[in-house]
Amino acid sequence: MAEMDMGFSPKRSGNHKKNKKKQGFWESIVTGLFPVKGDSTGEILRKIVFLTALIVLVVALVMIAVYFVQFGKLEQNVADGTATDKAIVELKNTQPTKEHIDNLPQGTVNEEFAALYAENSDFIGWLNIPGTNIDYPVVQTDNNDFYLHRDFHKDYLFAGTLFADYEGPVTADGMPQNTVIYGHNMMYKYQFSGLMNYKHRIDFLKYSPVINFDTLYGNNSYKIISVFVTNVYKEHGEVFEYNKHLYFKNRDEFFDFVLECEDRSIYEMGVDVEYGDEFLTLSTCDQDISLDLRLVIVARKVRPNESPEVDTSKIVKKSSTKYFDAYYDIFGKLWKGRTWDTSVVKGMDEYIKSHGLEDDPKNY
């Protein structure tokens, strides 16, 4: 009886609760994070949401860590006075061997690029903007994705490599009428981040109004004619697909492209343009506001026997710039009609009139 009174009897019934097995530390972590048998629907959903958020956080932290590790290496590897990798600069300055020269594509005239081409046969030329740290090799392959996050040696690098649009091949037979080159805006000093200075500083534009792009097949200089910001999604307004204008089938397509570039430009450059001119377009992300935008620099190729000098006294900030709906929603109506001197584009006045594209500022 005493044994039963103490509660030791196996036949005892009532409110006695069976003691739960005590969980170890790791077991409690697992059951606390992952759905287990017996969890309510609400508890399962809570764990799934938490695990999803945890995975996103871990991935983000890893990406941030990789980002800073790679930029730490870039800081160690860049050549003095530029943001270009030392190894690339050494290749550029390497005296080419006969084997290197023999392996160059037919039609090559710039044999000094032979070592770069030997390292990577996707190499097509070297882009340089005097007065800036933009001084990089340019590659081109059969798509616009490969070099987004690969370096010149084709290894992973978040900052990527400058590359030309694959739909406008640069060859010994010539270049597209509009060569488009893409590069990341790394919000620091690499790749095309320096282009943001053109948007914010007219003194910078006056100091560096010319872009040099020397290819395997010739040396080329370009005078900037437009600096503009545009959207990439229709939900933000009309999209100007500047990177789809690599070739012009006729005069109308040519003038339409130039008109859009001039209307959208933040500055009036005073650089003359005429039908038949070739262009170089530099494209990068614009991260000044929380929209997916592009900063675009368009330059006109210096013609044979033309001076590469630019009369910078003609460069002024425009009082009216064409943007897009989402930009107007944020900053108000900035387009007050066409105010730039259309006569700098030979034949533009006739094109505007014949197509009913007059845009009188008096109407705004």
Provide mean pLDDT, rounded.
87
Number of helices: 11
First and last CA, distance: 104 Å
Q: Report strand %.
A: 15-25%
* Number of beta strands: 10
Rg (C-alpha, Å): 30 Å
Any low-confidence stretches, pLDDT <50, length ≥5? Answer: 1-14
- Topology pattern, helix = H, strand = E: HHHHHHEEEEHHEEHEEEEHH
Strand order in the largest sheet: 2-1-5-6-9-8-4-3
Tell me about the largest β-sheet: 8 strands, mixed
Shape: globular
From the helix content, strand content and strand pairing, which structural class follows?
Answer: alpha+beta
Specify the helix fraction band: 25-40%
Write the layout of secondary structure elements.
Blueprint lengths: L1 H4 L19 H9 L7 H37 L8 H8 L4 H5 L11 H6 L3 E6 L6 E5 L23 E2 L13 E5 L13 H5 L1 H6 L2 E6 L5 E11 L19 H14 L2 E2 L10 E8 L6 E9 L14 E2 L7 H7 L16 H7 L10
Parallel strand pairs: 4-8
Antiparallel strand pairs: 1-2, 1-5, 3-4, 5-6, 6-9, 7-10, 8-9
